[in-house]
């Protein structure tokens, strides 16, 4: 899919070019050499934004612009980000056409597997909510827009609570409940689609009959959520006023994983937790391919050192038909489990 990439003034890269294999690309080098910067450039030009920082922070220090160029099948793609004082401009060029931003039709499905994902069920709820909402937005493009609208309405309600203006809450209560109904529908539908996939993958990986599932956690009944949440907002305005913010809602909810009847966060072994996460990432790939009708680009950033031999081999087998980019400090950790073609890209 991706045959080459040129970087100019991107992060630690002044002016570099790389060629890639259609299969697995192993990006190897010591820590702090620029491995993650390289895959960040791939994500940026394929998706339109970084998974780590704002556009301005991608420009190399003491430079005023960055440029990326990539060849994808029969498409030549460029992105130019320019900085003038505190303002940045971004322009994409796809073949001969220019765009200020990438529409959903112009982005490519990517599964990014980074070290933090291995601690998905240990990190805070905000991280899990963002992970879930980012995945939902890949199959429901309007989801992020609805999330933004929800948080704007939430800010308005919280401001009224702090000012004690309870008589003015109803329009915002209604708005929040309406938006919440759409968000909860999207979130729970995705989890419903993930569960049969993650269970099948986990059982194959662990060679067991254990039941694995994701479970959405809410203080509001998810059945008829919109009405139930509106009732809550109306009845608990005084309690919310005392603390100065809205205490319940989609902005405070969570999801967990269970193995049989055990919460994987508290009772599962480290190996079981790793298997659940690995199964989830592969399920993510299957869902994106199903909805977007295109092959996924798989990016693994420094996670092989956290997996044992069995899980490394399993993961590579599951992504063997996808173009993949794997960063590591030791190429042998990947090569020793490969049967197909690969390319080693050494950074020094």
Feature tags:
348 residues, alpha/beta, Rossmann fold, 2 domains, 5-stranded parallel sheet, 9 helices, globular
List the helices and strands and how they pair.
Elements: E1 2-10, E2 13-19, E3 24-28, H1 35-47, E4 65-72, E5 75-84, E6 87-94, E7 97-99, E8 110-113, H2 125-139, H3 143-163, H4 170-206, E9 212-217, H5 225-235, H6 237-243, E10 254-259, E11 262-263, H7 270-292, E12 297-301, H8 309-318, E13 324-328, H9 332-335, E14 342-346
Parallel strand pairs: 3-13, 3-14, 8-12, 12-13
Antiparallel strand pairs: 1-2, 1-4, 4-5, 5-6, 6-7, 9-10, 10-11
Describe this structure in words.
It is a single chain. The protein is an alpha/beta fold and 348 residues long. The chain folds into two domains: 1-108 and 294-348, Rossmann fold (3-Layer(aba) Sandwich); 123-282, Glutathione S-transferase Yfyf (Class Pi), Chain A, domain 2 (Up-down Bundle). The protein is 41% helix and 24% strand. It contains nine helices and 14 strands. It has helices at residues 35-47, 125-139, 143-163, 170-206, 225-235, 237-243, 270-292, 309-318, 332-335; strands at 2-10, 13-19, 24-28, 65-72, 75-84, 87-94, 97-99, 110-113, 212-217, 254-259, 262-263, 297-301, 324-328, 342-346. A six-stranded antiparallel beta sheet has the order 2-1-4-5-6-7, with helices on one face. A five-stranded parallel beta sheet has the order 8-12-13-3-14, with helices on both faces. A three-stranded antiparallel beta sheet has the order 9-10-11. Strand 5 and strand 6 (87-94) form a beta hairpin. The longest helix is centred in the middle third of the chain and has 37 residues, at 170-206. The protein is globular. The two termini are 26 Å apart.
């Amino acid at each position: 899919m991706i045959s080459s990439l040129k970087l100019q003034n991107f992060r630690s890269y002044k002016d570099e070019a790389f060629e890639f294999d259609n299969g697995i690309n192993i990006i190897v080098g010591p820590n702090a050499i620029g491995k993650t910067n390289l895959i960040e450039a791939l994500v940026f030009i394929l998706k339109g934004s970084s998974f780590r920082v704002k556009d301005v922070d991608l420009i190399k220090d003491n430079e005023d612009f960055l440029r990326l160029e990539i060849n994808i099948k029969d498409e030549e793609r460029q992105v130019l980000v320019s900085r003038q004082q505190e303002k940045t401009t971004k322009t994409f060029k796809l073949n001969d056409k220019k765009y200020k931003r990438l529409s959903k039709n112009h982005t490519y499905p990517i599964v990014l597997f980074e070290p933090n994902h291995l601690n998905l069920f240990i990190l805070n709820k905000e991280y899990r909510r963002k992970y879930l909402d980012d995945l939902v937005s890949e199959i429901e493009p309007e989801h992020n827009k609805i999330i933004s609208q929800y948080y704007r309405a939430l800010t308005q309600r919280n401001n009224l609570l702090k000012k004690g203006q309870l008589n003015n809450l109803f329009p915002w209560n209604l708005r929040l409940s309406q938006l919440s109904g759409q968000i909860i529908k999207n979130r729970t539908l995705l989890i419903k689609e993930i569960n049969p996939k993650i269970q099948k993958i986990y059982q194959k990986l662990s060679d067991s009959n254990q039941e694995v599932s994701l479970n959405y956690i809410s203080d509001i009944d998810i059945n008829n959520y919109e009405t139930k949440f509106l009732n809550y907002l109306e009845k608990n305005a005084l309690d919310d006023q005392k603390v100065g913010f809205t205490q319940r809602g989609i902005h405070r909810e969570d999801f967990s994983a269970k193995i049989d009847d055990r919460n994987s966060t508290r009772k599962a072994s480290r190996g079981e937790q790793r298997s659940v996460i690995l199964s989830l990432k592969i399920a993510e790939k299957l869902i994106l391919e199903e909805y977007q009708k295109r092959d996924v680009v798989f990016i693994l950033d420094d996670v092989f050192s956290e997996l044992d031999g069995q899980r490394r081999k399993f993961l590579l087998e599951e992504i063997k038909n996808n173009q993949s980019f794997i960063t590591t400090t030791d190429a042998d950790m990947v090569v020793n489990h490969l049967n197909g073609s690969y390319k080693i890209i050494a950074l020094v």
